[in-house]
Amino acid sequence: MGEHVGTRPVENGYVSIGWAKLGDLRAYSDREAFKSALADCYPEKKAGSRPVDAGILYRFTHQMKAGDIVVYPSKHDRMVNIGRFTGETDYVADDQDGYPNRRRVEWLGHFPRNDFSQSALNEIGAFITVFLIQGHAGEFLAKVGAQPYQAEPVPTDLAPEEVADDDAATVGVSRQAEMTTGDFIIRQITGKLSGYEFEELVAHLLECMGYTARVTPRSGDGGVDVIAHRDKLGFEPPILKVQCKRKTDQTPRPEVDQLLGTLGDGEFGLFVSLGSFSRQAVELERNRPKLRLIDGEQFVELLLEHYGRLSPRYRSIIPLKQIYVPDLQG
Which pTM was predicted? Predict the structure, then answer.
């Protein structure tokens, strides 16, 4: 599912799949029927991709059963959602996200990406929409108590269940490179910087963006960790009051309300978190023009955009080099 679905699948208990032109997927009984329908409904797609797409559609519609465990990494909040299929299938013709075919899920837990090994994250970052986790199933099952976790050597000879066409594979590799870089940046920050040092990094990043910023004293800050402004002396509005959270889980609305309570005339609130924000907090941002929320995904994007201006200290903590990857979805 694309990033635009937001929190709807988690809040409403489902995972879904696209190919809306095919209609209700339950009308197709086998892979050959899916291949034929794909050729009719999506003639612009390469013929070589049809076996892969047919396999995905067949697996989603007919192979997944009640009781099976599903792992859904949601990109918009950098969370890994783990649940159990209930066996119910829905077709929502007017689905607002363009994913009309749904499988109902009872969610068992929602975990920050940092809770998992990088190799496990790489496996669930595959370009195939629906696939069987082979190398790290135990790590995900243990997270929801489905079985005790025992670290085992990861097989090196795992073959993908399907072989996609070159363009699809290239898109998948590019996307995984971006996600892996984000994972690395956040792991470096959480592993090598204290909470106060993270506040200093946020202040430095704001300076790289053209602000003058200072970190407030460690105690008695009233929920404000950094103060930033455009003029050198800090007398002229607007003034930014920034709260920083070096955590990768979800920030609830009350913490955002605390920051809003510190704002006076000519002051704006900026909340920076390495995790995500609750739906209530996001809705609050939409209704408060003086509030801005920066989650982990957005923080990584800002850091990458201004990486060349970072001091050598931070570039040594987060060592990166610039590469170019194909942008076939652009």
Answer: 0.78
